Amino acid sequence: MAGRLLSLRRMGRTSFAKLRDGSGEVQLFLNQQALGKDVYQGALDVLDVGDFVSAGGPLFRTRTGEPSVRVERLQVAAKALRPLPEKWHGLQDPELRFRQRYLDILTNDSVRRRFEARTAIVSALRRVLDSHGFLEVETPTLQPVYGGGAAEPFVTSYAALNRDYYLRIADELYLKRLLVAGYERVYEVCKNFRNEGIDSSHCPEFTMLECYQAFGDLADMRELAQRLVATAAEAVHGTTRVQFDGGALDFTPPWRRLTYRDALLASAGLDLEADASASALHEAARSNGVTVDPSWPRAKLLDELMKTLVEPSLVEPTVLERYPAETSPLAKRCPDDPRYIERFEVFVNGMELANAYTELNDPIEQRARMEEQASARHGADATPVDEDFLLALEHGMPPAGGLGLGVDRLVMALSGTSNIREVILFPQLRDRS
RNA sequence: GGGCUGGUAGCUCAGUUGGCAGAGCAGCGGACUUUUAAUCCGAAGGUCGUGGGUUCGAGACCCACCCGGCCCA
Questions:
Q1: Which residue, A90, A177, A206, A406, has most beta carbons within 10 Å?
Q2: pTM value?
Q3: Which residues of A spanning 283-302 put their CB closer than 7 angstroms to strand B?
Q4: Model confidence pLDDT, tens digit, residues A244-273
Q5: Helix (H, G, I), strand (E, B), or coil: what is residue A227?
Q6: Cα angle value A211/A212/A214 (rounded, 5°)
Q7: Nucleotides of chain B within 7 Å of a protein C-beta?
Q8: What is the secondary structure of A247-263 as a DSSP string?
C-alpha cells in the first residue's frame, strides 16, 4: 500500500506511523527485529511526516486493537521537503488556508469532506437531469456578445479573430439556441464570470447550472428545482433535513411559496398594485431606511428594496414568485396580468439560490425588451443586444421553462458555510506585496 | 468605500505599565520493543507584515501603507 505519512512516533526499536491514502488511514508498525537493524534505522533516518511511502506486510492488530500493517518492506515514493502544518490544530490562518489550499485540505478533515461533498452534489445534479432526459452540452466560454443577465463582463482579446471577446456572464442565450435547434431538454454546468465585487456570497468566477425544457412551464421548473436540491441534500447527508453546527435547514419539498408583491408588502409596507411608480418606490426606500440613488430606474430600486428588506428574512428554502415585468427581459409575461412575469427565485439563508422563467420565445417582443433594456439601463448595467440570438429566435423557439441554479451557493447551503470562498477550491486573493 | 479586527519561529498561539523575544507542535541530537496529540533529556530556530515617527529604550504608543477576516454600504 502507498500513501502519505501523517505522523511518526519513534519509540526506540519500535515505531508507529499513520499512513493515509484515498481510501482512509492505517497504522504502520515498524520493528527493528522484523526489518533488520540497518533497514529500520535507515528508514527512521530518512522518513519525515509528509512523505509519500509505500509499505508492505501482513495486517494485524496491536495490543490496543489498532489495525496495523507489520511492515516488512518500505520505500519512500516522494520526499516532502517542508513540514506539514501543526498536527493538532491543522492550518488555521484563513489567508494561508486559501493561498495554500492543498495544506488546508491535507490537514483539515472538515475541509476535505466539504470538497468531496461538492463533487457529490454536482454528481447528484447531473444524475437528476440525466434521468429526466436532459442533454448535457458545452457552449462557448468566450463570447462575442455577453448576455443572459445584467453584469459587468471580463473583456479579453481574441487574437485569431482580431477583436475583443467576453468571458460569459451566463450561458442562457446559447442554451436557448439549442432549443431552436430542436433539442428539447438541455443543460450545462459551467463557470460564469462577472467582473464585479467579491463578498461572502459573490465570487467573480462562479459555477452555475442552467437547464431548459421545451414545453415546460414554471411549475415544472419549481418541481425540478426542488428535486435537484433535495437529491443533492440526500447525496451528502442522507436526508433532506440538514443539520450542521450553526443550525438546520429543511429542504424537503414542497418549499414555502411567497409572491413578490406579498413579500414587499410585508417587509416594506409597499403595495405594488396600489402604487408602483418610481416615486412610491423612493418613498418606500426612504421610510425603511434604504439608501438609494435618485437616478436609479424602477428595476434597480425594486432590486435594492428586495435585497435589503426581503431577502435576508428568507432563511428556510422559499420560492419567491410573480416578479414585476421590469425585473427581467427574458421571461414571459403572466397571461392573467401583464405587469408580472412568469419567474421565480429560490432563496435559502437570505441568499439567492436559483432563478427560473417561463422563457420568452416571441422574437418581436424579445427584441423590443432587449432594446428597451439596452437603452434604459445606465452605465455598467447596460446589456448589448445580441442580434445573433434574435436571429435564432426568429427561426422559432419552442415555449420553454428555464432554471438556473448557483452551484457554489448550493454547496454553501448544504455544508453550513457562510463564505463562498469556503466552497471554492482556489479562491483568488490579492498578491502578497 | 466605511467600521471593527488580525498579521510574532515552518505551523498553532502567548507576550502584563514601553525595559534582554516566549511556549507547544514540527525539525535537529540523545534515551526508549505496542504507541494513539507517545513520553523524557538536550541544543537550535525571529526582517515581531512594510515604511516612517515618538522615546534613553518600541512587538507594544502615533502616522501612512500592504495582506487577510467579520460587519456595513
A1: A406
A2: 0.93
A3: 291
A4: 877 899 999 999 999 999 999 998 888 988
A5: helix
A6: 155
A7: 6, 10-13, 24-28, 31-39, 66-73
A8: EEEE-PSSPEEEEHHHH
